[in-house]
Write a structure and sequence with these properties.
single chain, about 280 residues, mainly beta, ten-stranded antiparallel β-barrel, about 70% strand
Amino acid sequence: MRWIALALWCVCTTLSARPYDAGWGLKAGGFWADVDSSFGAVITGIGDPTRIDFESDLALEDSKFSPFFELTYRFNNERHMVGLNYLTLHRDARSHESEKSFDFTWDGETYRVNSGAFVSSTLNIDIYQFFYGYTLLSSERYALLGTLGVHLMDIDARLEGELELVTPDGVSEITSAEAFGKVTAPLPNFGLTFAWQALDRLLIAANVQYLSVSFDSYDGRLMDLRLQASYYFTPQFALGVAWQDYDIQVDEERRFSNIDVNFNYQGPAAMLIYEF
């Protein structure tokens, strides 16, 4: 009887929340992301610039499940919001035979990979977003928010195996070595979010974020389009599904010793939502 009563309560109770009521919100979900990443190098013996692709040249997966988490807090008569979200994509490939001979420079050291050498590669991408939102328009059924924030894209790349260290006096005979490079790129962004309570339990939200900016030796671009539907089983718990087009790129303008990443996802996403 208790389970029947609980089920009837979940079905019959109405929601007291409106779009973006004051309080905390926690969201966790995931999607499959396509990634295109490369770094600058030169062809050994010729010196011509080239790009070494982490996916096609070093055997990293070009598509992988990417989890994400988001925490928000709405306050001051529901007019203001602050939030943090995080998504991650870590990949590695072991003992892949290189088909090219190339030299590359990371952290002031120049390394050589000969054709036929076995190397292992790792590329870890973590993206953090800190944002502030202000309610521009609101009613009992809808809300329009303007957002301003910053994405921090943390890229950690590593190569290890049969690498040779190139010195001013020649090539040091090293049969096993590790090279790594790290890039942390801040990308400020602005956006709009529109939320509409279409039914008592159904919330529809549309979000857009965009920015293109250059700073120091980096060029960064961000585009995030999302249409989301959330069904509230209780006033606190909901299941959300979304269609998202998310593209973030970080390119270094120098010819060599740079790591470029294009993180792209276009497709469905699913998430669990808890508000308190």
